[in-house]
Fold Autoinducer binding domain-containing protein.
Amino acid sequence: MKCWQEDLLDIVFDDATCELEVFRRIEDAALALGFDHVAYGFQSPLPFSRPKITLLNNYPRSWQERYNQAGYLQVDPTVAHGRRSQESIIWADQVFMGAQSLWDEARAHGLRVGWVQSSLDGLGAGGMITLSRSCLPLTPKELDAKQPKMRWLVQVAHLAFSRLLRCKPTKGFRTLSGRELEVLKWSADGKSAQDIADILSVSKSTVDFHVKNSVTKLQVPNKTAAVVRAALLGLLS
């Protein structure tokens, strides 16, 4: 029989797993840890100007609607904390001092006790889990006993959703060839088109051809953007 952690790892490596199935498994794990509600947010590294944010939670419908209507995502201090730190944080009056309306309304909807932690990776993607319930404060004893599993859940969730969301190709996205990736890797190292041509023993026009194809396939305006996007998609590692 698999242990708790091993069973949860299936969602990371199972290619057939969809976003809703991943969340369902996370929800089950949260319930097993003694929490009524769980929320997961994922921020993609692209596009730079307005990164895509995916939010999944099992909060009461009334609170989901109110949170969105009031634009609380923009002022939520736990979200701001998660974007700059991977240290866990527990809901408290002092945490929400700058967003009192959010705190008051959350408690009115039965969300009074919460634990939050984010996971940020080197490719620019970030994920954050919030575990919450309506009563029973988180005691030091409970945290000591459960926090290792809670942190494990954060990391597994980020790995699973990162695989499903960060690398999801946009409409019309076409796979880069081995030579196109090779050219982009050398470009990422600061090599000019002529440098790359000399390294690969091809003509400069051939290198330019591969760069042009990469730009088209990655749906970006130029070579620099193609290198950045390929790197953030994990294609150059």
User: Anything to note?
Assistant: Residues 4-166 form a domain with the Beta-Lactamase fold (CATH 3.30.450.80). The radius of gyration is 22 Å. The longest strand covers residues 113-120.
